[in-house]
Amino acid sequence: SYDRGSTFNVFVGKGQLIAGMDQALVGMCVNERRYVKIPPKLAYGSEGVPGVIPPDAVLHFDVLLIDLWNLEDEVQVQTYFKPEKCPRTVQVSDFVRYHYNGTFLDGTLFDSSHNRMRTYDTYVGIGWLIPGMDQGLLGMCVGEKRIITIPPFLAYGEDGDGKEIPGQASLVFDVVLLDLHNPKDGIAIENQLVPESCERRSQTGDFLRYHYNGTLLDGTLFDSSYSRNRTYDTYVGKGYVIAGMDEGLLGVCTGEKRRIIIPPHLGYGEEGRGKIPGSAVLVFDIHVVDFHNPSDSVSITVHYKPSNCTVLSKKGDYLKYHYNASLLDGTLLDSTHSLGKTYNIVLGSGQVVLGMDMGLQDMCVGERRTVVIPPHLGYGEDGVEGEVPGSAVLVFDIELLELVSGLPEGYMFVWNGEVSPNLFEEIDQNHDGEVLLEEFSEYIQTQVETGKGKLAPGFDFEKIVKNMFTNQDRDGNGKVTAEEFKLKDQEAKEEHDEL
Hints:
GO molecular function, one term: peptidyl-prolyl cis-trans isomerase activity
Number of helices: 11
Function: PPIases accelerate the folding of proteins during protein synthesis.
Shape: rod-shaped
Keywords: Calcium, Endoplasmic reticulum, Glycoprotein, Isomerase, Metal-binding, Repeat, Rotamase, Signal
CATH architecture of the largest domain: Roll
Subcellular location: Endoplasmic reticulum
Number of strands: 24
Structural class: alpha+beta
Catalytic activity: [protein]-peptidylproline (omega=180) = [protein]-peptidylproline (omega=0)
């Protein structure tokens, strides 16, 4: 048979062999080698085989059993590793990805997906595989390892595959299942941590910041936001991410942790991407850091308000307050308490982000409140490098300690009493008909110190005075004449008359 390059294939005990060989093969194991001596009466007797075996010849056979099966055989399955958790097993019409080594019964390797460094991807139970493999894969868990032994009539039969597999060969597949899904599958969500307090859940159109680990079903890591030390930031429900993630991120709370399992038709499909193979089920373990909607405004929660709360903060007021600033997940960003001094601003003057200007409105001294500021009213998409992440929702716990009422809008200085009818002459102390900046500054300072006038609180004195002087110096020559000099209410009346 070695000379012919093919094994001898025959049923035993069916009269297809000489009697001696029929007896000698009984009880042999695959890979067993026997030396068989057969007398003539159990071989070809007194007639022999003309030209080949003489009459009354004793025959000697050196036999090596390569393969062995019976028509009553079925597929044999031997599981040698099974994961503790097995939420789902292979069913008919599922799509699977698996690695395998394929050998004959004698151990000869004829094929291996490992050598090709690519999984075998196929549907199960619909005729895409040989019948024995269609049967042998049923009931497997992801991560399970099993030996599947298939008789030839459930494999490639009498003809083999015309290549590596000869006719009538039993096949042995050592299989590890890596992936499993059904084309009808949707995403699966496993809640791992849901905060006790969840005032709002994400909806279509919200903007989320979240961390994630992305793995395949067998646990192979393909991506992680943690390794980049930066959240993944995106709109949800609008097609900015794969369909399965778009769906899986809806209905989450800030601080929630959940696992989202995404079948390939809702992930990266048959082609895959980068480290993600084609037809791969994806597993994302996500942690929602924060979310907001572009239509969100500032949210204010008052924790304490004094019983005497008649004077409320307004635009132009000078405020002194303490704050703790954090992200929605509780990460502390900044605190005036740690600095040991208050934060001081003129409300509505652009000295803080717009959301804080809004959040400090209508407060009274002693009031404590929490102000939640969405990024478009905070530090936007860019954030503050090294301090505030981009697109971050900010939380300020505020206590107002002092309030100095500001001036009416548009005014940097007001009189506390009647204005002198000879105001220009009073400022022009040397009576030369011209007022210089030094004269103007000295006069304003005297009015403030004597309580006759009031400057807008919270601003630099010199800058305010210079600004007021520049407004009066209409020709820009550094001097103010009586013709140029006008009070603000006079300017407003003149404009009104002109209109």
